Amino acid sequence: MVSVIVPVYKAELYLDKCIKSILGQTYDNIELLLINDGSPDRSGEICDRYAQTDERIKVFHKQNAGVSAARNTGLMNAHGKWIIFVDSDDWLEVDCIEKCLKLINEYHLDFLQFGLKRVDDNGRVLSADGKETAVLSAEEYIRTGKIGICVGGGIFKADIIQAANLRFDTDLKLGEDQLFVYRYISKCKYCNRINNLFYNYRANAESACTISNPQECIKSIKAFQKFELRRIFEPYIQRSILRYFLYPIIRSGILTVRQIYILIQTEKFEMLVPNRKIEKIFLNLYKCSKYAGIFFLRYTLS
Questions:
Q1: Which uninterrupted H or E stretch holds 4?
Q2: What CATH number is attached to the domain comprising 108?
Q3: Helices 290-301 and 257-266: crossing angle, nearest 10°?
Q4: Which residue, of 151, 183, 203, is where some domain finishes?
Q5: 220: CB partners within 8 A, 6+ apart
Q6: b vs e for 37-75, b when ≥16 Cβ sit within 10 Å of the residue's Cβ?
Q7: For residues 238 and 232, what is the distance between their CA atoms, to the nearest angstrom?
Q8: 0.85 surpassed by pTM
Q9: Which of 175, 203, 231 is the last residue of a domain?
């Protein structure tokens, strides 16, 4: 059996599509765990309505504590051999689970990651991430540079999660799924990534809202700095900090380049965020020549 864990919060406009995509899978030996995280809209009612029509659905209503706590509730109540995480405004392709299990059983995998599409409310594909690898040991898989950082793009073995007591860090609002994926991979023997675009990720304003708080970024970078497997996953961590934390902050004007430099030095983040990487962000952002950009940066930081 496969347990599909869906944390639900303010998703009344999208929840129907999410639930239907899971219940309509060509592989039907599933349980769907809907974790209503104190949603103030009609999401909880929608969950209950579906639970009355399909015995595979379990609904948990809890006070709002964030997506990590909701996912942890799902993990503590899941009974499947395999675990899939889906956000409540996203959806799966109809043959996702069937095809994943076929590969898992054929190659005796502990972890299978698949492709994601980023789509708008009209279903238009904005971007796609469909990298693939051969079947590899965990060590080889890490070296490929192709690990997906979102829990939504993979299928996890429940026994490994429970044996290692893996849970999501409820203190973090950014990067918590990435740390979970890294810890999980470190416990695996064989991994694989396929280019099938099975997961549809909806682009909306809610997804970007946490970027507006630099303190959340700092908290997450500190968590990466203390991460016990940091050196093994360092290239991935550096890339994520730059792409998902610092670049959006600089682009939005929340902090200036000078403030970012001062922040990195004050918090002693130099090992994770080398200065040359910040320079590269600046050059890409403002589309200036390398020499003009470096001159401007040195003038700004002096």
A1: strand 2-8
A2: 3.90.550.10
A3: 60
A4: 203
A5: 172, 173, 174, 175, 176, 245
A6: bbbeeebbebbeebbeeeebbbbbeeeeebbbbbbbbbb
A7: 12
A8: yes
A9: 203
* Domain coverage including residue 239: 210-301
Q: What are all long-range contacts of 122-129, with beta carbons under 8 Å and residues at least 24 apart?
A: 126/203, 128/197, 129/153
Partnered with residue 36 across adjacent β-strands are 8, 61
pLDDT for the residue numbered 291 = 44
In the block, tokens 């219940």 appear at 23
The pair of three-digit structure tokens given for residue 111, joined into one six-digit string: 């972890």
| Helix, strand, coil percentages for the chain (3-state, nearest 5) | 45, 20, 35
Cβ burial of 103 (10 Å; 0-12, 13-18, 19+) is middle
Binned at pLDDT 50, 70 and 90, residue 167 comes out as very high
Torsion sign, CA atoms 233, 180, 67, 102: positive
Per-residue pLDDT reduced to its tens digit, 85-132: 999 999 999 999 999 999 999 999 999 999 999 998 888 899 888 899
Q: How many residues are there in the chain?
A: 302
Tell me the pLDDT tens digit for each residue of 236-281.
888 887 777 777 776 666 666 667 666 666 666 655 665 555 555 5
Specify the residue for token string 């995509």: 21
